[in-house]
Amino acid sequence: MERKKQIKSIVKSKKINYEPTLRLLDKVDVVTLSSPALKCLPNRSMHSKNSYINGTQQVLINAPSISKKKTIVDNGGSCTLVKLDMNDFIGIDKLGLEIFKRWKKLDLLISNAAILGTLGPIHHQSNDEFIEVLNVNLVSNHRLIRSLEPLLKNSDQPKACFLSSTVAIEVRPFWGAYAVSKASLQHMVKIWSMENKNNDLSISIINPGKTNTKMRKQAMPGENIKNLQKPKEVAEKIKDIIFSNKIYKGEVIDLI
Q: What is the C-alpha to C-alpha distance for residues 213 and 238, in angstroms, rounded to an integer?
């Protein structure tokens, strides 16, 4: 019965409604997700190196299944699911407000939600799709920073991590809006990092590399998955980076 109370679900709405907090929690994390293959992204509840696991509250944005929250609860944490369109910028603003009402702070942000768009000659990509990719991959992250920075600064060990891609650095034909959005994201995060160079807010950019995800299959159909990393392997590497004591200031970390 207690477990059922801890597993909270929020239905997508312009008005984001939250259930009352069950108890005071030690750590509060926000993770944005977009692919079922990345449901194993790191969470404190599974990280044995930390002694404060039992007090962790995870807020999962667009989590693909109920199994993730069950895992968190089974490991002594608590989980809130938020179904939020990353194009809903007002909803992202409200997210920060609601987190402040409930917990007053945020300890960790992992931003992973992204869409690929159509790959092909850039002049073939429709304006609507180009703008949608930029909104989800770039502008939504600006709104997350606006909404969540004050909460991160209320934490004693704040961390923010943004997942990027090799095409953010290497200029490749046919990657269109996706490459533009990731290159812009990295530059924006580096600017934000420089603005926070004199505090303890750790801000990192992680490039997972070739990983067996739904997006990878969309971009590279027919690719031999034996040559790709497994999502769980990537998650373990990301956990080691995020939960280390090192304070990052906009560094790009390539996992392979």
A: 16
DSSP state of 251: E
Whole-angstrom distance, CA of residue 185 vs CA of residue 137: 7
The strand pairing partners of 78, in sequence order, are: 57
Q: Considering the chain, what is the average pLDDT of its residues?
A: 82
- Collapsing DSSP to helix, strand or coil, 244 comes out as coil
Q: Which domain holds residue 155?
A: 2-254
Higher pLDDT, 233 or 23: 233
pLDDT-derived band of residue 7, with 50, 70 and 90 as boundaries? very low
**Number of domains observed in the structure of the chain:** 1
Contact 205, 242 (CB under 8 A): no
Question: Cα–Cα distance between 206 and 164 in angstroms, integer?
Answer: 6
- The C-alpha atoms of residue 140 and residue 128 are separated, in whole angstroms, by 16
pLDDT per residue as tens digits for the range 88-126: 999 999 999 999 999 999 999 999 999 999 999 999 999
Q: What is the pLDDT of residues 187-233, one digit of tens each?
A: 999 999 999 999 999 999 999 999 999 999 999 999 999 999 998 89
> Which residue pairs, CB below 8 angstroms and at least 24 apart, start in 177-183?
177/117, 177/122, 177/125, 177/129, 177/130, 177/133, 177/134, 178/114, 178/115, 178/116, 178/117, 178/119, 178/133, 178/137, 180/133, 180/134, 181/114, 181/133, 181/134, 181/136, 181/137, 181/138, 182/114, 182/137
Rg for the chain, CA atoms, rounded: 18
First vs last C-alpha separation in the chain? 44
